[in-house]
Amino acid sequence: MQPTFTADADPFRTRIQAFLNEHLPSDWKGIGALNADESLEFNIKWRATLRDNKLLAPKWPTEYGGAGLTALESVIMAEEFQKVGVPTGGPNDAFSIQMVGNTILQWGTEEQKQHFLPRIISGEDLWCQGYSEPNAGSDLGNLGCRAELDGDEWIVNGQKIWTSAGHLANWIFVLTRTNAEEVKHRGITFLLCPMDQPGVEVRPIKMISGESEFNEIFFTDARTARENVVGEVNGGWAVAMTLLGYERGESAATNPVAFRGELDRLIELAKDRGKDTDPVVRQRLAWCYSKVEIMRFLGMRTLTQFLAGAKPGPEASIFKLYWSEYHRIATELAVDILGPDGMHYVGKLPSSAFSTDAAGAPNDSGSWIGTFLNARAGTIYAGTSQVQRNILGEMVLGLPKEPRADSGPWKDIPK
Ligand SMILES: Cc1cc2nc3c(=O)[nH]c(=O)nc-3n(C[C@H](O)[C@H](O)[C@H](O)COP(=O)(O)OP(=O)(O)OC[C@H]3O[C@@H](n4cnc5c(N)ncnc54)[C@H](O)[C@@H]3O)c2cc1C
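Above are the sequence and the flavin-adenine dinucleotide SMILES. Below is the predicted complex in structure-token form.
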């Protein structure tokens, strides 16, 4: 593990700090300090600023609207942005740029790159992720949403679920079953599908927080062009896994900063509520501090491997398991500190349904209760804790594999 960045990182860090000083308001406290309307307005302007400075997809080659930054530079950029509490893109860019954009860049044809990447950068296309299905979540390879070729078009039938931002997107990248005779991880094709058509129906799902961040999506004879396959027909599993591997380096750098910022707010909350002298609360805060420090070192380890060019391996499960389990406990402490106030919202809900509330967020019950509820989802999305433990048990510790009853053709697996 390399616990610090090398000296050649410093000039770039200074450049990014200067960019932030130049473009952020002088009284900037973090995007969490803005109300919903201000935040919307800021996001639109900020995305345009990043786009104009080629920093929206900083690692992409310049011909596709990027700045051609190295992995190290993009990690430093993400870290500096996180420190001042400003996003590295618009609200949809985790799906559009980090997931599908990067995947098209790696697997797409030249025509796909020329067509889709500029539309992502301009914001004309907003994407969502069509992976999970009612019978295929942890066991994603079991997916059954079908696609069949009909002349120059694919016809898609089936259902996806838990589709974040599906109500806002106009394109979906969707994993489809194109050959049921193959074993389950083969016979899958990665398709790009327009959503603005009669065959695609989006139904919102209400979350525990009361919001509707994700959706069910029903495909009934939905159509997409034959050339909208990324990678090989029936070879979509490799493309799907590439997509899941993106963001690893950046989140290893940004997550510990975000959780440290959140812990500072939690300590402030304890002081504000007169609980900082309570020995049990102090003990629990000390536990959180030690966990966040360990997370920082875990992040550095992941980052060292990422910057050395290593592909995401099973050890990435340690980081995911660690931060998401920590977050449930830390936010429970916040609600305990709030006491009876933890039963009703005051102030706005968190700006994001994922991870911590944004830097600068007011230290009130709306922020903490919302984050507490969202933290339940953290141990589910991007692979549940049980699945991460299975991966670690089997692939890192070398424990015996789970017995499997699904080795034959997908069509013969009991559904
Ligand atoms: C906030 C949020 C946003 C999401 N956004 C998206 C999105 O945009 N697009 C998308 O495609 N999906 C999305 N998901 C779905 C997410 O990927 C799935 O919820 C996740 O993969 C788990 O699948 P599942 O819900 O079907 O649970 P299941 O796989 O049915 O699991 C149910 C329970 O069984 C356990 N379990 C399952 N298999 C095993 C095993 N082999 N060993 C031990 N325990 C096991 C699980 O850990 C879990 O506790 C989102 C989920 C959430 C919570």
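The mean pLDDT is 94.
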